[in-house]
Amino acid sequence: MSRLLLLALLLLPLSGLAQAVYRTTDAQGNVVFTDSPPANATPADRVEIRPTNTVQPPQIPPRPVSENTPNAEAEVAAYTLTITEPANETTIPMGPGNFSVSVNVSPALRSAENLQLFVNGAPQGEPQRASTWSLTNVYRGQHDLTVGVIDDSGKTLAISPPVRIFVQRPSINSPSRSTPPAKPKPPRPQPINN
User: Fold this and answer.
1) Residue 110, exposed/middle/buried by CB under 10 A (0-12, 13-18, 19+)?
2) Integer Cα distance of 82 and 133 in angstroms
3) CA angle 112, 149, 78 (to 5 degrees)
4) Which of 65, 160, 166, 168 could form a disulfide with 81 if both were Cys (CB 3.0 to 4.6 A apart)?
5) Beta-carbon contacts of residue 142 (< 8 Å; ≥ 6 apart)
């Protein structure tokens, strides 16, 4: 019982201090606010602190779900993309490095979505609705091709598994297969000794 009384006596002065503020003016004419009346004889005005305004947040009714509105999960289609041409591990033979890339997309693209071809992770050309690209003058070496579905904000929604190709190009270090082999020299006539 005595502990409860002691606790109440300790909390009583703290609650009183938070309720009143005293306003005085110092010798230089500055207004000073304090939580206790001044010790000197300067007059002080007691300013009563009103309770803090509180407002309950408005109740927002849940949005009605109509049967015509697809739910959020159905809004993002789950695309399956497969590069059908060229096949994985294809070698593009000697030449200028020209070939086509085709992709199969399932389900069909929606109106705000396009396809983007990536060569070695870098976008190739602009996003397009067509599922075929004609590449020209591709440098020799190994290249990884992927195709992604891009929405109108530029976000990639799905991407195909990569297809690796190898491009061979003519080089001065390895002559082209189209160069005919050198003609053999005719044999030299041998002198006849009698």
Assistant:
1) middle
2) 14
3) 95
4) 160
5) 164, 165, 166
In a domain, 134, yes or no: yes
pLDDT tens sequence across 139-193 = 888 889 999 988 888 888 888 999 999 888 776 665 555 555 666 777 777 777 7
Cβ-Cβ contacts under 8 Å for 77 (sequence gap 6 or more): 107, 110, 157
Q: For residue 13, give the 3-state DSSP assignment.
A: helix
Amino acid at 155: K
pTM, rounded to two decimals:
0.49
DSSP H helices in 57-99: 72-75
Nearest residue to 176 via CA among 63, 95, 59, 57? 95
Write down the residue that tokens 């309720």 correspond to.
19
Per-residue pLDDT of 3-41, as tens digits, reads 554 545 555 544 444 467 888 888 888 888 888 777 775
Evaluate whether residue 62 is within a structural domain.
no
User: 95 in a domain, yes or no?
Assistant: yes
